C-alpha cells in the first residue's frame, strides 16, 4: 500500500434497499474522512463487502463475492446481514480482515482505520450535504427504523438485526429535508414494519423545525408531505391505525400507494407464519380504504407452499387474490432459511406442488394486473422520468415503485430529462407496463 497516495476503498453492496441504506452511510463516512472510492478491485487498497443473508441464495452470493474480492484484491472487510454470522464467513474465508454485522458504520470505520489509516487532512468538503447515495439523484430511500418486533416463523431478520429501534423523528425529518433540498423528487420510506414506527419508544415526541412531532407513521407521513416531494410507503401491515394515512393519500399529500406484504390469506397459515395483523379482516379493510381513496394502488407479496398449506388453504388464497384485485403482486415458493422457526413445522409441501401453486397464483394475478393497467388507458398521469434510452423515456407514475413495479414508456422523449416530472396521457398497456404520450 502506498501511503503517499489517497487511500482507496472498493465497495460492494449486496442485498435489499435496507442494506443499500447502510452502504450509503458507510460511503458517506469514508468520503467525509477523505478516502476515495475505487471503481475496481485493482485500484482499491481494501475492499468492503456489504452482504445479505436473508435467503440461502443470498448467503451464497455473498460468500462468492467475498471469495472474488479476496482473489482479486486480497484485503477484505465484511459487513451486513451475513456478517452477523461471523463464524460462517471465517470458516469459508479465513483470510478476511474483519467481520461486522448489519448497521455497523462505526465498526466498519474502525476496521478500515486499523487496516488502511486515514489521511491527516480529511476532505470534508468533498461530501455533498445530503451524503452519498446509491440510488439515482431523483429518488432516495429513507430508512426510519432498524430491526423488527415480529417473529414471523419463516424469517431470521429479527435474530440478525434485533428488535425494532425507531430513528428519532426529528433526525428522519432532517435527513428527508436535506434530500429534498438536494433535488430528490421521491422519498421511499422503508423499514421492516413501517406501521410499527415509534412503538419501541412509545411514540415519543420529537422536534422538527421547532414543532413537536410524534414518532409515529401518520405524523411522519403528514410531515413528509410538507416537503413537496413524492412520499411512498413500503412494508406496511394492515393494522387499524393504517386507516389514518388513507385520507392523506386521498388529499394528494402522499402517494396513494401501499406496499403490504400479505404473504397469505388463510388464517390458519397466517397464524403458523406468525404474521403481523394476521387476525385482521384484510379484505374489508382494503375495501374501506378504496372507498376513501379510489386511486389507491396496492402491491404485495405472497408465499405458496408454506409448511402445512393444504389445497383448501391455497384456495382461500386464490379467493383472496380474486376478490382483492391487487395492482402488483410478487409470489415466491416457501424456501427454508437456515435458522428459521418454520423449518421445524410439520407437513412440508413438495417442491413441485409449491411451484404449481405459485404458477397458478401468478397466472390469475397476471390477468388482474393487466386488467387494472388497461383501465388506465385514457387517463392523464404525472410521471417521474428515471432514464432515457433507445426506447424513449422510462418513467414511473405514483403506481410504480422503482425497481419492483412497472414503468411508463414515453416514446417521443425529445427534450425530456432524467428526474423531471411530466404529464402523460396513457395510450397503451401491457402486462406490467404502460405507454404514454406527453400532454
Ligand atoms: S415483519 Fe416478519 S418477515 Fe418482516 S422482518 Fe419482521 S419478522 Fe421478518
Please tell me about this protein's structure:
With about 450 residues, the chain is an alpha/beta fold. The chain is about 30% helix and about 20% strand. α1 (about 15-30) crosses α4. The protein is globular and about 60 Å long. The termini are far apart. The structure holds iron/sulfur cluster. Iron/sulfur cluster binds near residues 148, 152, 157 and 192.
Regions with pLDDT < 50 over 5+ consecutive residues?
A: 120-126
Number of helices: 12
Strand runs, count: 20
The shape is globular
**Which structural class do the helices and strands define?**
alpha/beta
Please indicate the percent range of residues in DSSP E strands (runs of 2 or more): 15-25%
User: If strands are numbered along the chain, what order do they take across the biggest sheet?
Assistant: 2-1-3-4-5
Keyword list:
globular; alpha/beta; binds iron/sulfur cluster; 5-stranded parallel beta sheet; 5-stranded mixed β-barrel
What is the topological layout?
Elements (H helix, E strand, L loop, with lengths): L7 E6 L3 H16 L3 E3 L7 E6 L4 H17 L3 E5 L5 H7 L5 E2 L5 H11 L23 E5 L1 E2 L10 H5 L3 E2 L2 H13 L4 E5 L14 E4 L2 E4 L2 H9 L4 E4 L12 H5 L6 E3 L7 H7 L8 H11 L4 E8 L6 H14 L3 E6 L17 H24 L5 E10 L2 E5 L11 E3 L10 E9 L4 E5 L1
Parallel strand pairs: 1-2, 1-3, 3-4, 4-5, 6-9, 9-12, 13-14, 14-15, 18-20
Antiparallel strand pairs: 7-8, 10-11, 16-17, 16-19, 17-18, 19-20
Helix pairs in contact: 1-4, 11-12
The structure holds iron/sulfur cluster.
Amino acid at each position: 500500500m502506498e501511503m503517499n497516495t489517497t487511500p482507496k476503498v472498493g465497495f460492494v453492496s449486496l442485498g435489499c434497499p435496507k442494506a443499500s441504506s447502510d452502504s450509503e452511510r458507510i460511503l458517506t463516512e469514508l468520503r467525509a474522512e477523505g478516502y476515495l472510492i475505487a471503481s475496481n478491485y485493482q485500484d482499491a487498497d481494501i475492499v468492503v463487502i456489504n452482504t445479505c443473508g436473508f435467503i440461502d441464495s443470498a448467503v451464497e452470493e455473498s460468500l462468492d463475492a467475498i471469495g472474488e474480492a479476496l482473489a482479486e484484491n486480497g484485503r477484505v472487510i465484511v459487513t451486513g446481514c451475513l456478517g452477523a454470522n461471523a463464524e460462517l464467513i471465517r470458516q469459508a474465508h479465513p483470510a478476511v480482515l474483519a467481520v461486522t454485522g448489519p448497521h455497523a458504520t462505526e465498526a466498519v470505520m474502525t476496521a478500515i482505520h486499523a487496516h488502511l489509516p486515514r489521511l491527516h487532512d480529511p476532505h470534508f468538503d468533498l461530501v455533498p450535504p445530503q451524503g452519498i447515495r446509491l440510488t439515482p439523484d431523483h429518488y432516495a430511500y429513507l430508512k426510519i427504523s432498524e430491526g423488527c418486533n415480529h417473529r414471523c416463523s419463516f424469517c431470521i431478520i429479527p435474530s440478525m438485526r434485533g428488535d425494532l429501534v425507531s430513528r428519532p423523528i426529528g433526525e428522519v425529518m432532517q435527513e428527508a429535508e436535506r434530500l429534498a433540498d438536494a433535488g430528490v423528487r421521491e422519498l421511499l420510506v422503508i423499514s421492516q414494519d413501517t406501521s410499527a414506527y415509534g412503538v419501541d419508544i412509545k411514540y415519543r415526541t420529537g422536534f422538527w423545525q421547532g414543532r413537536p412531532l410524534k414518532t409515529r407513521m401518520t405524523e411522519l407521513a403528514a410531515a413528509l408531505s410538507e416537503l413537496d416531494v413524492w412520499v411512498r410507503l413500503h412494508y406496511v401491515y394492515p393494522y387499524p391505525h393504517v386507516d389514518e394515512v388513507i385520507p392523506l393519500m386521498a388529499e394528494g399529500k402522499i402517494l396513494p400507494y401501499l406496499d403490504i406484504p400479505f404473504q397469505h390469506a388463510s388464517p390458519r397459515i397466517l397464524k403458523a407464519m406468525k404474521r403481523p395483523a394476521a387476525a385482521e379482516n384484510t379484505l374489508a379493510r382494503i375495501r374501506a380504504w378504496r372507498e376513501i381513496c379510489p386511486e389507491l394502488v396496492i402491491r404485495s407479496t405472497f408465499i405458496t407452499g408454506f409448511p402445512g398449506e393444504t389445497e383448501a388453504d391455497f384456495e382461500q388464497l386464490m379467493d383472496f387474490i380474486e376478490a382483492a384485485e391487487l395492482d402488483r403482486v410478487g409470489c415466491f415458493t416457501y424456501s427454508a432459511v437456515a435458522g428459521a422457526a418454520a423449518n421445524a413445522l410439520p407437513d412440508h409441501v413438495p417442491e413441485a406442488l409449491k411451484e404449481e401453486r405459485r404458477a397458478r397464483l401468478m397466472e390469475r394475478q397476471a390477468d388482474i394486473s393487466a386488467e387494472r393497467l388497461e383501465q388506465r388507458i385514457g387517463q392523464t398521469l404525472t410521471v417521474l422520468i428515471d432514464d432515457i434510452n433507445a426506447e424513449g423515456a422510462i418513467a414511473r407514475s405514483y403506481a410504480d415503485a422503482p425497481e419492483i413495479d412497472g414503468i411508463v414508456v414515453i416514446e417521443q422523449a425529445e427534450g425530456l430529462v432524467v428526474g423531471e416530472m411530466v404529464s402523460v396521457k396513457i395510450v397503451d398497456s401491457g402486462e406490467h407496463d404502460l405507454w404514454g404520450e406527453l400532454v
